[in-house]
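Dear colleague,

Thank you for sharing your sequence with our group. We've completed the structure prediction you requested, and as agreed, I am returning the results in plain text so they can be pasted directly into your records. Please verify that the sequence below matches your submission; if there's any discrepancy, let me know and we will rerun it promptly.
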Amino acid sequence: MLYSFLTSLIESFSFLNVFKYITFRTGLSVVTSLTIIFLIGNPLINYFARKQITGPIRQDGPIDHIIKKSGTPTMGGLMILIGIVISTLLWADLNNIYIWIVLFVCTSLGLLGFLDDYLKIKFKNSIGINAKLKFLWQFIISLTAIVALVYFTDHENISKLYVPFFKNLILNMGLFFIPFGIFVIIGSSNAVNLTDGLDGLATVPVMLVALSFSLICYLVGNTIFANYLQIQYIPEVGELSVFCGSIVGSCLGFLWYNAPPAKIFMGDTGSLSLGGSVASVAIIAKHEIVLAIIGGLFVLETASVIIQVVSYKLTGKRVFKMAPIHHHFEKKGWAESTVVIRFWIISIILALIGLATLKLR
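Please find the predicted structure tokens below.
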């Protein structure tokens, strides 16, 4: 909104030309969303505390979680969503269809997560929405986004899968791209949800993924940099850097309240929307495999759950003391802060490896 208004005044005020630069607006997006979180954070937390909007704590988890985390407000993802949406609407080019697609995924999965959190709070259990119904809605949201990408954009390479570290290894998936894209969005959404089990654990890795893809989208959408790095050039994708910037700012602001000991949890409202958002950006920028590298922590957390379930069903034995894997290390005696910080370090290393794929080809 502000972007369109300010650029319309360039002929009268030439200094406003700076708002045409994606890098400048991405910086504004970070600052705006961060400021919004700081403004609404404490009032929202206090309101949730008064209304006892608190999520259930896993009874089979570490004992100190039940003692320390009971009564902590949840649905903090609501403030993240507010920061992302307002910041993006202010500074992004709203004539760009990619912006509307990622906003659709973000808000739709956020509403689904909000309903899931609400039912958990209302019935005071960890069930929430029926698992099959939840998956169905994730499928519908993802399908809508992918179909919109295929049929309503000029994305010529949308059905292609680019393999990192190789210049010319490109797989044309054809119609198989639709189920693939759905899998990426649903998988990423649920992976972030599984990771969100300790104070600040999911927040920083999501922020790192968004920060990385802010750079990737800018490079992919710039013909000079794309040709130099020998990566695919996709027109108008650079605008997604502004959206990624809003995620970075919102997560950074949320971390202020979510750092151990957390004053509020993001809940499914935040985790589902954030996971789906970064996945949709990766799909549009054609860096889906790089998403799996940079977001490798989420892959690890999901894999630990799958391994645990399969092992128990086939052999009756558990591979981990508890899944997801962050709880396994807690059961082994690691302090929560130790697990969180070490997992952050892993995420930083994976982000550097993922970004290295842009040059190592």
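Summary note from our side: The CA atoms of residues 207 and 340 lie 14 Å apart.

Kind regards,
the structure core
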